[in-house]
Amino acid sequence: MMVSTAGIVLHATKYSDTSLIVKLFTREKGLQSFIVKGAFSKKSRFRASLFSPLAMLHITYDDHRSDRLMFLRDVQRLTPAPELMFDPARSAILLFYNELLYKLLFDTGEDKVLFDFLEEEIMRIFEADTDLVELPLRFLLRLSIVLGFFPENNYTEQNCYFSLYDSRFQSYFVDENNQLPQPESQYLSQLLRQERNSSALRHTRNNLLHYLIKYYKIHNEQLREIDSVGILSSILH
């Protein structure tokens, strides 16, 4: 059966001297793997550069259920070419999203709601013309809605410590393994209220980023360490 669908590149691995194995999260079929022969050849229709991290593609392929790796019949790129890589902040955000999604979606089936959400979020990276420092934090919170563990925003002067395990703010602070300190908790509440132009200090933003990754790991046991968090923290000021 011929399938024509949009897809998001999650991972590309070199296979032999000339080929790639590419994993795509597709709108119609969920996670799919393809072999792209001759990807490093100058004469190839499907050059390796097409499959950069989180590239949005429109693909056509034969869906042979008995085949583990399928072949692409047609590929068209829907997002800008990787000139983005000359922008360190956008590149760092893109690589962070890519690593997170690759580790979250390693066995995901068809999920059009999730796909449409990710398509919109990826385009935000390309289109945002304002300060990018809060974009990853807001992305993590919006993604948690789709994944089903969005934090409850019951923050008050009394309930001012966010519990990573209970997903809500509490009136007592036990330790940083379970709860966010007050500055990070207050900042999280501001983001949950979708406030703009917050005055959070850089170290508070960075701390919250690490806490949100820990929050994801608590509520999604398949998630491992996200190595690109350190790079993202150092680039976003």
Model description:
This protein has 237 residues and is of the alpha+beta class. 35% of the residues lie in helices and 21% in strands. The protein contains 6 helices and 7 strands; from the N terminus they run βββββαααββααα. The protein has helices at residues 88-104, 112-127, 135-147, 182-192, 202-219, 229-235, and strands at residues 2-15, 19-26, 30-36, 56-62, 70-77, 161-163, 168-170. Strands 1-2-3-5-4 form a 5-stranded mixed β-barrel. A two-stranded antiparallel ribbon has the order 6-7. α1 (88-104) runs antiparallel to α6 and α3 (135-147) packs parallel to α5 (202-219). It is elongated and about 65 Å long.
Give the low-pLDDT segments: none
Helical/strand content category: alpha+beta
Strand and helix order: EEEEEHHHEEHHH
Number of strands: 7
What is the overall shape? elongated
In round numbers, the mean pLDDT is 90
Largest sheet: 5 strands, mixed, barrel
* Radius of gyration computed on alpha carbons: 20 Å
Alpha-carbon distance between the two ends: 49 Å
> Helicity, in percent?
25-40%
Strand content: 15-25%
The largest sheet has its strands arranged as 1-2-3-5-4
- Count of helical regions: 6
Summarize the model shown.
By secondary structure, this protein is of the alpha+beta class. The chain contains six helices and seven strands, in the order βββββαααββααα.
SSE topology sketch:
Blueprint: E1 2-15, E2 19-26, E3 30-36, E4 56-62, E5 70-77, H1 88-104, H2 112-127, H3 135-147, E6 161-163, E7 168-170, H4 182-192, H5 202-219, H6 229-235
Parallel strand pairs: 3-5
Antiparallel strand pairs: 1-2, 1-4, 2-3, 4-5, 6-7
Helix pairs in contact: 1-6, 2-3, 3-5, 4-5
